[in-house]
Amino acid sequence: MECGQCSARLAVTRGASSVQCAHCRRATRVERHGAVVHGAVGFVRSVFTNIGRARPHPGYPPVHGNKRALLVGINYTGTAAELPGPINDVKCMSFLLTLKYGFPGDCILVLTDEERDPYRRPTRANILVAMRWLVHGCSSGDSLVFHFSGHGDQEKDKDGDEQDGQDESICPLDWQLNGAILDDEINEAIVRPLVQGVRLHAIIDACRSGTVLDLPNLCQIKKNGKPLWIDHSAPNGAWKNTSGGHAILISGCTDDEDAQDGYGHETMAMGALTYSFFAAAWFAHRPPTYGQLLQKTKAILVDCNRDSQIHCDLPASILPHVRKVVNFSGVQEPQLSSSDKFDINRKTFML
């Protein structure tokens, strides 16, 4: 059955009158939401009936058009884990999507910790509901984007679906109270509902984020520039792929690396990956291949590490946010994983 708050699927013990959601912690009465479906056939039917179903909070953009984006930036303001860049990251990604790639402004949902609307605060429950908004009713030809900038982490895998024994996660604003969002949950929310003809690009600027969508194919680029696809399927055989669509993750670093945040003036700092990805995409004179985009993104990361200041001829409206990025301590390695293998040096990147 579905949670009455966030629409997550819940396993219910036979005869139980209520069940508590592990995502949002809300208790839902079983009898109010219909009978529990028993048996393998019934379970599969219930999964595919509910795929993509969402109950968005009031104020979320209506689902229309074939381009939609969810942008989450968390500065963790006032905490010991405070970051200077994520909210700026979201502003620049929104600018990139609208001006460069034609995303309607009213089809971009933004969650940051400067939002006053309680439904747009990047809490665990709100992010999970927003993820379901992103994929709700998706159909062939749709282009979806999920961008997250904030803290990432790892914790011990409990269900045997990780090759390294660690689940990757992103940290919502209330992670210390309600926990992080695991890669298993992200995969269930925005990967498995993707039907034939739907494209999802996730750009994750966080530590330990290399495989945070749990996609089954991990791309490593050899010294000669040729891609080497590595099987990253779950060891326990768990299904982690889409329902026919295509999901691609560009992440800021490997599962055991830290992502760097840019330091300069507090209103100008950005995450290293978001800054480098933004610059690589914005200044591309023609649509790059995925290989070219990754190569350029990494080159900018190297420049950021080498130079004390980066100056680019960016549009005046966003110049205050990206004028200066200082001292990225170490060169992180951008990662690419995918639901399907493809030739990254031939396939054109397009959102």
Automatic annotation (TrEMBL):
<dbReference type="Pfam" id="PF00656">
    <property type="entry name" value="Peptidase_C14"/>
</dbReference>
<feature type="compositionally biased region" description="Basic and acidic residues">
    <location>
        <begin position="150"/>
        <end position="159"/>
    </location>
</feature>
<comment type="similarity">
    <text>Belongs to the peptidase C14B family.</text>
</comment>
<dbReference type="InterPro" id="IPR011600">
    <property type="entry name" value="Pept_C14_caspase"/>
</dbReference>
<dbReference type="InterPro" id="IPR050452">
    <property type="entry name" value="Metacaspase"/>
</dbReference>
<feature type="domain" description="Zinc finger LSD1-type">
    <location>
        <begin position="3"/>
        <end position="25"/>
    </location>
</feature>
<feature type="domain" description="Peptidase C14 caspase">
    <location>
        <begin position="67"/>
        <end position="338"/>
    </location>
</feature>
<dbReference type="GO" id="GO:0006508">
    <property type="term" value="P:proteolysis"/>
</dbReference>
<feature type="region of interest" description="Disordered">
    <location>
        <begin position="149"/>
        <end position="169"/>
    </location>
</feature>
<protein>
    <recommendedName>
        <fullName>Metacaspase-1</fullName>
    </recommendedName>
</protein>
<dbReference type="GO" id="GO:0004197">
    <property type="term" value="F:cysteine-type endopeptidase activity"/>
</dbReference>
<dbReference type="GO" id="GO:0005737">
    <property type="term" value="C:cytoplasm"/>
</dbReference>
<dbReference type="InterPro" id="IPR005735">
    <property type="entry name" value="Znf_LSD1"/>
</dbReference>
<dbReference type="Pfam" id="PF06943">
    <property type="entry name" value="zf-LSD1"/>
</dbReference>
<dbReference type="InterPro" id="IPR029030">
    <property type="entry name" value="Caspase-like_dom_sf"/>
</dbReference>
